[in-house]
Amino acid sequence: MTPPEMEARIVRYGDLKPCRTAFIDAHTPGSDRKENFTIIGGGVSEAADQHVHITIPHGFNIGAAGQPPKCRNSLHSHRTAEVFFVLSGRWRFFWGRWGDAGEVVLEPGDIFNIPTGIFRGFENIGEDYGMIMAILGGDDAGGGVIWAPQVIEDARDHGLVLSAEGKLYDTKRGETLPEGVGAMPLLTEEELQNFPEPTTREVIPGYVARYLDLAAMADRDPVPVIGEHGVLRDKPGFEVALVTRASATRRMHRHDRPSVLMPVKGHWRVVWQGNDSTPAGEATLAPGDTMSVPENLDHTAYPSMTGEAALYHVVGTDDPAGGTWRVDEP
Question: Could you tell me which residue ranges the Cupin type-2 domain spans (predicted)?
Fold first, then answer.
């Protein structure tokens, strides 16, 4: 592929286009200053004006959330995987029907494979604007978001109504539900019983990995983070690995499906080959950039400057993009 063709598959941090009305809590005090980004695939945004940077199917979606201090994302659940890693800032993740079943605080580079089927939320508890990057299972990301009932009720009090079809309507702008379309029904108490309330001690060992631990393990080879043989054992429809300066190689390789490079630390040079086995081009990635590498393209990535360097590598698998909460046996 030519450099212009490859550049079209790179979303630079500085070129990210935010949506400030992506979800039902966009007007709710405490959640009304967040920005959502859909980088690869449409994600689960409920707004018609959400910009999608790359529409090529990968078998998973890549997104991001940017929030100023003390801004939170309201309690919701997904039917497929939701994996976050912290790009910048300090973040508190919490879960449960009311958000009080458990919590964990993550720092830059830390990764959280949030169990499916539980209500979860997060907030920036740092002192500056922070960003978390997200990987969602499946090309359609599981068909939307399931909101805790109180979130829908609070949103209605502040002018936002979610239709049964999963689309947002802003009554403050004079919007109303179309004729024949009802509002999203609240989950019943019986339905709410199907959402587990795992404790912090149950969640952290199998679902949270600290960046410093992963970087130490990637001293020779990239460390599998999420996958059948990963530090976090799961098969959510994609695999995630961490590559560091110590485990990077200039040896060309390829995948039989699109893969994604997401730098966490340092600058990375990505080199790819053309049909004549000579380098066709190269690009440099910085933290916050996201690059989609085409399937069957020989390429390599390695640090381009001195200093700490690490990136997350994501590639799809044939495993189903769903699952349920589980507690691993000791």
Answer: 69-132
